UniProtKB/TrEMBL annotation:
This is Nicotinamidase. Pathway: Cofactor biosynthesis; nicotinate biosynthesis; nicotinate from nicotinamide: step 1/1. Its EC number is 3.5.1.19. One of its GO terms (biological process) is pyridine nucleotide biosynthetic process. It comes from Chryseobacterium vrystaatense. Residues 4-199 form the Isochorismatase-like domain.
Amino acid sequence: MKKALIIVDVQNDFCEGGALAVPEANEVIPYINLLMEENEYDQIVLTQDWHPADHKSFASNNNRKVGESIILNGVPQFMWPDHCVQGTFGAEFHKDLNRDKVTHIIQKGKNTEIDSYSGFQDNNHFMKTGLDDFLKYHEIQLLEVVGLAMDYCVKFTCTDAVANGYITCLHFNGTKAVNVKPENGRDAIYDMIQKGITVLG
């Protein structure tokens, strides 16, 4: 059975000192590097948040405060600080992430009008990123997922992976939650388990 490692959004803006820093985010990087060193993956894919500066998920572009919610193209949208803007340092992968074995990069969130948490598709399910096509082309059946953040982009990538027919495993030690609310990370784990995702220690 061919397997791939999906590394979600290990970018400067989500790490320590970033515009949307996930608590303890930097702690997952050595774990992810070790996974790549100790395991044989047929493909290793990075996802990258890659927003235009005028993206509608940014509070600054809606005259809103960070943490508020709006309806954007028919779906609820949390208002984030500006982050992972195309071509900026914040959008770059963290320097400590070993990319020697990476085989593919998927960029998401490029459409100004629609946010994209999942590595597979936007939040409205209008536009696919090409990740599913890439994995199917390479006959991948098993996905292991790590990265940032557990309660948003990691969770939605995992649930879309299951929906697309992949056996899906989340490495708990390879992810951290934003925890906008303290229970968000815990709830994300429960939600993923209910959807058939295996959570590895």
